[in-house]
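User: two proteins, same treatment. go.

Assistant:
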Amino acid sequence: DISSLGIVNDKGEIASEQFVRKFCDDYCLMRYARARSWIVEKASAMLLETLKWRWQIRPDLITAQQVKVQASAGSNYHNGFDKYGHPVFYMRASRDPPGSTQEKLDLLFYNMEEGVRRMNSETGVEKFVYIIDLKGFSITQSGADAKLSQSWLNALQNHYPERLSKVFVIDSGMMFTGFWNVISYFIDPESRRKMTFLTLDQFKKSIPTSDYFTVDTLEEYYGGTLPVKVTDAQHAKALAAMKNVPTTEVDEKKVAPKKSFFSLKK
C-alpha cells in the first residue's frame, strides 16, 4: 500500500501509486542498491527518502519556461555528450547571474532532470559529466552561497545516486580554496574521488588521451569543436535584461562582468 509509506508533501497530498512506480523501475532499484553496497535495508531507506523529496520538490515538473531567465545567462547548461554518451553539463562561475537560491536550484534541478531524460539505461548510459569552470570565482565580489551548494550536493549524492560519472573542476584558483574547505565537508569520499582539479590549459592538453572526451564532444572554449551554447554577447544581453538595463547599452564585443557561480546578489 503506497499510502503506508508516508510520502506526503507539505500540502498534505499523498503520493500516487503511478508517481512511485514511474520512478522506481528496475534500473532505479539497481542504482540505489549499488549506492548502498547491496544492503537492502539501507537502499530501501535511501529510496524512500528520495521519493519523499521528489514528491515535495517535484523536480520532474520544473519547465524550461520557469528557468529561462536564469538559463539565458549561460552559467549552467547541457551541451553535447562524452565518448560514452553521458550528457555533459557546463557550469561557469564568471557567468553567474543575479537571482535567489531557489531560482538557481530550480535551474540545477531542471538540468539534472533533463540530463536523466537524455540517458538510456538500456544501453548503460545512466550518468552525467560536469565541467565546472571556476575562472572568475569571487567570494568577496558576490558572496558564496553555501546553502545553494549544500542543497545541490545533497540532492546529487542522496537523490541521484550512481548518476555522477566525472567532475572536471577548471581554474579553481586560490580564491576558491576557502570555499572548498567549507563545502568539501558535505561531499562524500566516492564523489570526491570522481573530481579532478586542473587548469584550462591542462584540460585542453589532456583531450588527446582523455578517457571521456574527443575534440568533437567539447565546446570550442574548452579545446573542442562544438559551438558555444551561450556566447559572451548573449550572456551580456541576458545579464543586462536581468538588471533592467537596455540591451542597446551592452557592447556585444565585451565579456560580461565576472560573478560567482554561487552568488545570491540581486
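Protein 2:
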Amino acid sequence: MVSNRQIWRACMPLMLFMLFALQHSPGNAQVAGLRGIRKLAIDKLEVEPLAAARTLAITSLSTLAPNVACACSGCYVLPVKLLQFEGNRLNKAQVLLKWRTVNEFQNKGFEVQRSLGNTDGFVNVAFMPAQTNPAPVYDYELIDMNAYSSISYYRLKQVDFDGRYSFSEIVSVKGYTEIPTITVFPNPVMRELKAVLTLLQPGKATIIISDAAQKVLWQQQVILQAGINNISIPAAQWTGGVYLLQVLPEHGSKMVTRFVKL
C-alpha cells in the first residue's frame, strides 16, 4: 500500500512546477480557469484571484513515481495490472484457473465469476483474497468444481478496498464429454467373452451376438449403469470364426465391435 507520505513526495514536483510557472509566466497571459494558488493539498488545488492573470498549461507526467499518477485533480494509485488469465479443464469435474498480476495496491481480492453456455449469466463461484506479502509479481490458482459438458466462461472481478472494481477479459473452457465405448477380451476367445461397456447414462440395453452372415446367435437385455459395466457372454458353443457384438442402449448410440472365436 502506498502511504500519504509517498504520494506527497510523488506529487511534489508537480506542485513546485505549478508555483514556478505562475510566478514566471508573462503578466498578460490568460490563465485557463486558474486565477492563483492559495493552498496546496494532496487531493486538490484551491485557488483565489491574483492581481494579474497568468497562463498555466500542464500536460501529464508519466514517471513521477512507480504506480502513482498525478494530474491537476490530484494523485491516485494505479489499479491492479493483470498480466495473464487462463483456464484449463483438468478432468470431468474440475477446471483450473490461473492468473498473474503486478502493481497490487489497495487490492482487496478477486471475485471469480462463471457463466455456462454463454456470456449472459455470470455468477460468483469463489473469492480469492489478495496476497499481502510484497512481491514483483503475484500468482493465483483456483480449482472450480465444474462438470458442465459444454463451454464454460470465466472472468475476474478485481475489487479494491474502497469499493471500486474492474473486470478482466473473458476466457472460455471446453466442457468434458465422454464417448460410450465397448471393449472385449480375450480376443480371440475360447470359452467366455468379457465385454466392458462405458455409458454416459443408465438404462436398459440389448446385447446381440451375430455371425458373419448377420444371423443372431445370442441376445440378452440387461440394465446398465452410467459409467463402467462388465458383462460375461458364454462363447464355447460357437464354432470358429468372426463374430459381431452389438449393444443397443436405451439412451445413446449403438456400439459395435468384432471378436474372433477359436
